[in-house]
């Protein structure tokens, strides 16, 4: 396995890019440590697949370098980078048995048959498919086909990184959690460097130790799932992660006091900077109905099982609250309170408040 370094990376699909808007990837600097579990998370078109193709060697970057354990591999073709990839659709041979599918990457590299048998047995045990080894792949269910596709990526012990490109897209929703759990278990057992590309926050947050969140070709935050939820560095991260996402509210700064619709709001710490587009960010989990506070009107109440989501409006600005007991009706006049240590100031999208010491 390898530490992967992306240095001063940029890429444009245009022959003569003239500005940042012409780049699909903009100034990427990133280190993935050997043996880590990482996720690239972001909406369609944010640059995830472009970055994955550059790492794998399918695409040459316009600028910058890719290093594996300090060795520059920018100009190496895919077959010389020792990368295993698992795609959206299972890449297996239907006419082969499960055993032969798992063995194929090793036979293709001239590995001794004794070692092949050992590795196939090890991977089959990890995947819990020992009883399927002599079944033709064409008879497998879609989730088991994807399991075998994962196994083909893991069977080699000389790979620098295993990359998963939206591997659960075609899997039925009720089976996805099984494969997510299995993939997490596999990483903990083999400790291979794994990069998981997805637009699904649940997949990213349940698999990865570190999540790289991308928007419009840029990395807006790198952090643990807890860090991304509790302290988003950018309003996009707050909005994209969480269900429902963070409330992003228009705000005004008046001599160090932050106001929302004229009401003073306490935030997590000192205000930094001035000017720009000023906004407040507070997750619905930290908005409560109170005896006094910001006046609001209830627009909708949704019971989602363990809790309820109350959608209110302050003036014409939507504000959501997640509560355990929704003893309130549509149209009711209420007051909202924001938990100060979870209420943050953002300026032009980026966090602009300091944590209180």
Structural class: alpha+beta
Number of individual domains: 2
Largest beta-sheet details? 6 strands, mixed
CATH topology title of the largest domain: Rossmann fold
Give the uncertain stretches in residue-range form: none
Number of DSSP helices? Answer: 8
Which CATH architecture of the largest domain would you pick?
Answer: 3-Layer(aba) Sandwich
Count the beta strands.
22
GO molecular function: ABC-type ferric iron transporter activity; ATP binding; ATP hydrolysis activity
Pfam families: ABC_tran, TOBE_2
Organism: Sulfitobacter aestuariivivens
InterPro entries: AAA+_ATPase, ABC_transporter-like_ATP-bd, ABC_transpr_FbpC, ABC_transpr_MalK/UgpC-like, Mo/tungstate-bd_C_term_dom, NA-bd_OB-fold, P-loop_NTPase, Transp-assoc_OB_typ2
Structural summary, described in words:
It comes from Sulfitobacter aestuariivivens. InterPro entries: AAA+_ATPase, ABC_transporter-like_ATP-bd, ABC_transpr_FbpC, ABC_transpr_MalK/UgpC-like, Mo/tungstate-bd_C_term_dom, NA-bd_OB-fold, P-loop_NTPase, Transp-assoc_OB_typ2. This is ABC transporter ATP-binding protein. GO terms for molecular function: ABC-type ferric iron transporter activity; ATP binding; ATP hydrolysis activity. Keywords: ATP-binding, Cell membrane, Membrane, Nucleotide-binding, Transport. 39% of the residues are buried. The strands form five sheets. The chain has a six-stranded mixed beta sheet with strand order 6-7-8-3-9-10, sandwiched between helices. The chain is α+β, with helices and mostly antiparallel strands and 357 residues long. The protein folds into two domains: 4-230, Rossmann fold (3-Layer(aba) Sandwich), CATH 3.40.50; 243-351, OB fold (Dihydrolipoamide Acetyltransferase, E2P) (Beta Barrel), CATH 2.40.50. The chain is globular. Helix 2 (98-107) crosses helix 3 (113-127), helix 2 (98-107) runs parallel beside helix 4 (142-154) and helix 4 runs parallel beside helix 5 (173-190). The protein has helices at 48-56, 98-107, 113-127, 142-154, 173-190, 201-207, 225-230, 235-240, and strands at residues 4-11, 25-32, 37-41, 63-68, 71-72, 83-86, 161-165, 194-198, 210-215, 218-223, 247-250, 252-254, 257-260, 263-264, 278-282, 287-290, 294-303, 308-314, 317-323, 333-338, 343-347, 350-351. A hairpin with a 2-residue loop joins strand 13 and strand 14.
